């Protein structure tokens, strides 16, 4: 499912790399790069490939794309 794919590239990937104490989930004290999408459901990320649905991108705590 799209939800499982997102977990695979975030939570599970961080755990596999031994970095789950620093990254992989949104928690106080963890580093986070964050993509905010203009979608209603995660399956739209695959359904609308090539369309510009990214709303904001946050890297190292700074908004780099709006």
In short:
This protein is α+β, with helices and mostly antiparallel strands and 66 residues long. The chain has helices spanning 2-8, 11-16, 44-47; strands at residues 34-37, 54-59, 62-65. It is 26% helix and 21% strand.
Work out the radius of gyration: 13 Å
The counted number of beta strands is: 3
Report the helical percentage. Answer: 25-40%
> With helices defined by DSSP (H or I, 4 residues minimum), what is the helix count?
3
> For the report, how would you describe the main beta sheet?
3 strands, antiparallel
- The low-confidence parts are none
Written overview of the protein:
It is a single chain. The protein is 26% helix and 21% strand. It is of the alpha+beta class and 66 residues long. The chain starts with a helix and ends with a strand.
Question: Which structural traits does this protein have?
Answer:
single chain, 66 residues, alpha+beta, three-stranded antiparallel beta sheet, 3 strands, flat
């Amino acid at each position: 499912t799209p939800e499982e794919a997102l977990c695979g590239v975030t939570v599970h990937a961080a755990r596999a790399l031994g970095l789950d104490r620093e990254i992989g989930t949104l928690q106080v004290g963890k580093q986070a790069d964050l993509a905010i999408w203009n979608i209603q459901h995660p399956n739209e990320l695959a359904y609308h490939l090539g369309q510009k649905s990214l709303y904001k991108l946050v890297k190292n705590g700074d908004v780099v794309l709006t």
